[in-house]
Amino acid sequence: GKYRVISTKSMPGTRWINLLIQNDCRLEICTEKKTILSVEDIIALIGAKCDGVIGQLTEDWGEELFSALSRAGGKAFSNMAVGYNNVNVDAANKYGVAVGNTPGVLTETTAELAASLSLAAARRIVEADEFMRAGLYDGWLPHLFVGNLLKGQTVGVIGAGRIGSAYARMMVEGFKMNLIYFDLYQSTRLEKFVTGMFLPSPISYGAFLKASGETPVTWKRASSMDEVLQEADIISLHPVLDKTTYHLVNKERLAKMKKEAILINCSRGPVIDEAALVEHLKENPLFRVGLDVFEDEPYMKPGLADLKNAIVVPHIASASKWTREGMATLAALNVLGKIKGYPVWFDANRVEPFLNENAQPPA
Ligand code: GLV
Ligand code: GLV
After folding, report:
1. 202: cis peptide before it, omega within 30°?
2. CA distance linking residue 224 with residue 238, whole number of Å
3. How far, in Å, is the centroid of ligand 1 from the Cα of 110?
4. Is 353's pLDDT higher than 90?
5. pLDDT tens, 5-15?
6. Is there a single domain that holds both residue 100 and residue 147?
7. Phi–psi pair at 95, nearest 5 degrees
8. Whose CA is nearest to atom 1 of ligand 1?
9. Do 192 and 91 reside in the same domain of the chain?
10. Which segments constitute the D-isomer specific 2-hydroxyacid dehydrogenase NAD-binding domain (predicted)?
11. Is 280 an annotated catalytic residue?
12. What is the reported pLDDT for 104?
């Protein structure tokens, strides 16, 4: 191989490996056992010559790594993730390194986990499982693990991009929930999903429900986030993490939610003030959360793990075989494409193949 490409982790599938090695790359996959590589670890991996790196969301891709990669002649970095809050894109630009991410292939998988957490929280599935395993079940009772019926309730979606829109579609279509969403921008994607459901020809979904004796579902775009907090029974967070969404859900906003609401987060941990959430959960035992992400991963804020009204899973929203193989393939394509000087690969499902494709090397 002419080009030296490093993957900081082993990734699922073999297609991404074949892509690289069949296209003039010598691929080195880091076998270091520790889960999270430090900046120093990665600088050592990059060494004196490296053309591109596939990295992970646990790594801090900032000034130090991009300057090291640039010094080694590297032109491309891809995160194996759609989120890129671990990547300093300005630093990458400064050192002439193009940055890629892996959107599109994880949309449905991530939305399905948000839906799974919604159901698990509404029906208290984890608590009930623990109860069974603890040998506490001694017979059916009318009050045992009573939860919430989703049908007819309102689902709130905050951040209506690809993932938020797919989640909205699942909850509305699958569970006949009413929908309220908040996004700074009107989401044609989400509105296409819902109007597609409500107004297909020859008969609208609403009319279909009415004709079958069902109450039609309603939907609207909220004019403020508070409107969603106040009206929704389940709220799922799907914004990107940046300065404007850090602690988007704080103590004051939690207080605006219904006492028996359910909050789901499959975006990034710092979108919620997790310490404030722990206090809120303690004070409101009927309030429930489903969390895939945490403010200081891999840690949880003190007290969270003891709460029955919290479901916690270890950042697995994109963890389906198809998706993870797809993410690995896209990450490899990002790096390979840039190295080979191809125009940026693009298809309709993939709107941001490179975040900064016009990056120029420093003069
Ligand atoms: C996972 O969290 C991702 O951003 O892909
Ligand atoms: C990420 O894929 C999003 O825009 O929701």
Report:
1. yes
2. 15
3. 9
4. no
5. 999 999 999 99
6. no
7. -100, 10
8. 81
9. no
10. 117-188, 221-317
11. no
12. 87
